[in-house]
Design a protein that fits this description.
Blueprint lengths: L1 H10 L13 E10 L2 E15 L6 E8 L2 E8 L5 E8 L27
Antiparallel strand pairs: 1-2, 1-5, 2-3, 3-4
């Protein structure tokens, strides 16, 4: 079991991304390959949850595209993530804010945390 932890530590890229949590608004620059071309697409939304540990750590982001909610799960240690930028720090009291899925309009707003 110790050998598994050693291999996971080699492949993790800890410390390259800023700290963020549930309720924060982030922009993820994600590399997309289309045939022989490669481009960077930005996905901006609210972080619903952080899940897992080590190399299996993932985070879920939700954004509104028109009137449709779009959620995407990103592996934190993915080589396709170019950068993560934290736009706002949200003030929430839970680690997983799935209740945001049912809310619309002004109720779906999250207060900003000031430092």
């Amino acid at each position: 079991m110790d050998l598994m932890k050693l291999v996971q530590q080699e492949f993790t890229k800890e410390g390259e991304y800023p700290k963020f949590g549930a309720g924060d608004t982030v922009t993820v620059d994600y590399k997309i390959k289309e045939g022989s071309k490669e481009r960077i697409q930005q996905f901006r939304g609210i972080v619903l949850q952080l899940k897992g540990t080590g190399i299996t750590k993932t985070f879920t982001i939700r954004k509104m595209s028109g009137n449709v909610g779009v959620e995407r799960i990103f592996p934190l240690n993915s080589p396709f993530i170019d950068k993560i930028e934290v736009n706002k720090h949200g003030k929430v009291r839970r680690a997983r804010i799935f209740y945001l899925r049912e809310l619309t309009g002004k109720k779906a707003r999250i207060k900003e945390r000031r430092f």
